């Protein structure tokens, strides 16, 4: 019973949770959202550029995209975050006078996200049937208009679930900026929870931070399922009898 | 059918194309008079579909010339050339992320710069001609194959082409849907459209086309009026092909 009580106190100390709540809500949550959203948007834009480079007929562009992707997808996120966050600090200070590593955290997360998102987009675009590009070219559209109007919209639609999964990863990975040491007002959810846990010697604040993460990620997970179902239902075939083309078939039915 | 067909003649001269060591077209000559229908038949792999793609420069020929209305178009911008030649594919290739009416109006809006409302009206009247105005807001995936192919024909016609290409337009259709598409193609031929039809439908070749060209191994083996080709084939290759398909 003692052990159980001990566990309950370690993880579910309501007082400790309530104590950390204001910081989680006013500091941690906005910063986590900011980090994930900013790197998500930048990662999507850069990822699309990488995908287009990756399917380009220009070998140098393809090679550049390939190398970038291999590096930023192949390294552990924490290594990239430390290298960028600490390594580029002096450069940023020189350029802007800012000593905050916050933008570098966003940059590092964006670099990682763009490598994954680039691959997601590329696979989606390449999954679009060749006939789509051909039909668009046959109408008189240029290669780039065909890609913009016909191929890319279809490719992106197919990988929306994978893309949202990537955003879920980003929400969680944003906790890794912990390693580059942010000032008090820039702390994200994990750091707020972790600081409180260290101060009190109790893990309940981390549980509270965890609940906040779940509040962000679970709706996204359901969004993935929703999109996935919509895409599958939207793609289902329900051909109807062709009134004009099949008079024989019509007759047979009546 | 459309009252505003302004078709032109089409000529391919000594067209050659190789993919590596594979010589797909070996000196093809094809002439289609204004307002006539030329059917191209032949065994699979004979280069028929490739010939269509070379004639509208989806694939550039290695050698030879292409003339539209008597003028060489090899130096023209290929995108502009393709706006003058409508093409219908075996697999329809409608854009599944757009509605039927958007499929037809897309090129009008983006290539002709037509205002959205006007393009839509024009697309709707084109859909009316193929009997599918009531499906304007449907997605291509909700249509039968025959309906999809008729939308594809409307999409190609919307740009007011001078020539229409049909690449085995009925091969992917269930048998009962073939008739409607062939009837539409025949209407178009009657209305005076210049057409090049790659097909396995020998009935259509014989009854609708003005000339039939038999290709095999990347060359034209025989060409002439359908009656002559079908009733009096001159070469063993055509004789054996016809005995296989008829």
TrEMBL record, chain A:
Q: What UniProt keywords are attached to this protein's entry?
A: Amino-acid transport, Cell membrane, Membrane, Transmembrane, Transmembrane helix, Transport
Extract one GO cellular component term from the record: ATP-binding cassette (ABC) transporter complex
The subcellular localization recorded is: Cell membrane
State the annotated membrane topology for this chain.
Answer: Multi-pass membrane protein
Q: Tell me which residues make up the ABC transmembrane type-1 domain.
A: 29-224
User: Which Pfam family name is an example for this entry?
Assistant: BPD_transp_1
Q: What's a single GO BP term from this record?
A: amino acid transport
The superkingdom of the source organism is Bacteria
Instruction: Give an example GO molecular function.
Output: transmembrane transporter activity
Which InterPro entries does this UniProt record tie to the protein?
AA_ABC_transptr_permease_3TM, ArtM/GltK/GlnP/TcyL/YhdX-like, MetI-like, MetI-like_sf
Parts of the chain that traverse the membrane: 33-53, 74-92, 104-121, 167-185, 205-227
Q: Can you tell me which family this protein belongs to?
A: Belongs to the binding-protein-dependent transport system permease family. HisMQ subfamily.
| UniProt protein name | Amino acid ABC transporter permease
Lineage at the top is:
Bacteria, Bacillati, Actinomycetota, Actinomycetes, Micrococcales
UniProtKB/TrEMBL annotation, chain B:
Q: Which UniProt keywords apply?
A: Amino-acid transport, ATP-binding, Cell membrane, Membrane, Nucleotide-binding, Transport
Principal cellular location given in the protein's record: membrane
Task: Specify whether Ribosomal protein is a keyword of the entry.
Answer: no
Q: Which InterPro entries match?
A: AAA+_ATPase, ABC_ATPase_HisP-typ, ABC_transporter-like_ATP-bd, ABC_transporter-like_CS, MetN_ABC_transporter-like, P-loop_NTPase
Transmembrane feature ranges: none
Q: Where in the cell is it found?
A: Cell membrane
Write one Pfam family the protein is assigned to.
Answer: ABC_tran
Q: Name the membrane topology term.
A: Peripheral membrane protein
What is a GO molecular function of this protein?
Answer: ATP hydrolysis activity
Example GO CC term: the record gives: plasma membrane
Q: Which SUPFAM superfamilies match?
A: P-loop containing nucleoside triphosphate hydrolases (SSF52540)
Q: Which family does it belong to?
A: Belongs to the ABC transporter superfamily.
- Name the record gives this protein: Amino acid ABC transporter ATP-binding protein
| Organism whose genome encodes this protein | Arthrobacter echini
């Amino acid at each position: 019973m003692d052990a159980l009580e001990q566990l309950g106190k370690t993880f579910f100390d309501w007082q400790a949770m309530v104590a950390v709540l204001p910081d989680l809500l006013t500091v941690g949550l906005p910063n986590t959202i900011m980090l994930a959203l900013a790197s998500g948007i930048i990662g999507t834009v850069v990822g699309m550029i990488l995908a287009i480079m990756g399917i380009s007929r220009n070998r140098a562009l393809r090679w550049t995209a390939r190398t970038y992707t291999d590096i930023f997808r192949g390294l552990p996120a924490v290594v990239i975050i430390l290298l960028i966050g600490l390594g580029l600090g002096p450069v940023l200070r020189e350029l802007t006078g800012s000593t905050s590593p916050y933008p570098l955290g966003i940059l590092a997360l964006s670099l990682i996200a763009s490598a994954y998102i680039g691959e997601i987009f590329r696979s989606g675009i390449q999954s679009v049937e060749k006939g789509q590009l051909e039909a668009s070219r046959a109408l008189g559209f240029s290669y780039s208009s065909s890609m913009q109007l016909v191929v890319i919209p279809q490719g992106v639609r197919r990988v929306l679930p994978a893309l949202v999964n990537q955003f879920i990863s980003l929400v969680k990975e944003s906790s890794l900026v912990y390693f580059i040491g942010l000032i008090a007002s820039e702390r994200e959810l994990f750091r707020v929870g972790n600081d409180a846990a260290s101060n009190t010697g109790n893990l309940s604040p981390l549980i509270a931070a965890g609940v906040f993460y779940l509040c962000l990620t679970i709706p996204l997970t359901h969004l993935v399922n929703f999109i996935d179902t919509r895409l599958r239902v939207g793609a289902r075939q329900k051909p109807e009898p062709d009134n004009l083309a099949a008079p024989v078939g019509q007759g047979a039915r009546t | 059918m459309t009252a505003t067909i302004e078709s032109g003649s089409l000529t391919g001269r000594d067209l050659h194309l190789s993919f590596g060591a594979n010589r797909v077209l070996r000196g093809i000559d094809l002439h289609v008079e204004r307002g006539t229908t030329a059917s191209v038949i032949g065994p699979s792999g004979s280069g028929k579909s490739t010939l269509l793609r070379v004639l509208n420069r989806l694939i550039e020929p290695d050698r030879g010339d292409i003339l539209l209305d008597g003028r060489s178009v090899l130096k023209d911008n290929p995108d502009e050339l393709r706006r003058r030649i409508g093409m219908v594919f075996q697999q329809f290739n409608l854009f599944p992320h757009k509605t039927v009416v958007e499929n037809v109006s897309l090129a009008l809006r983006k290539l002709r710069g037509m205002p959205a409302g006007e393009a839509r009206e024009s697309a709707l009247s084109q859909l009316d001609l193929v009997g599918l105005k009531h499906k304007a807001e449907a997605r291509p995936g909700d249509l039968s194959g025959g309906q999809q192919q008729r939308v594809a024909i409307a999409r190609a016609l919307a740009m007011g082409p001078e020539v229409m290409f049909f690449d085995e337009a009925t091969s992917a259709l269930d048998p009962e849907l073939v008739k409607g598409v062939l009837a539409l193609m025949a209407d178009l031929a009657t209305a005076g459209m210049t057409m090049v039809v790659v097909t396995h439908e020998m009935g259509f070749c014989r009854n609708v086309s003005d000339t039939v060209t038999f290709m095999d191994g990347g060359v034209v083996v025989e060409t002439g009026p359908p009656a002559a080709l079908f009733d009096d084939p001159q070469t063993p290759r055509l004789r054996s092909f016809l005995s296989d398909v008829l």
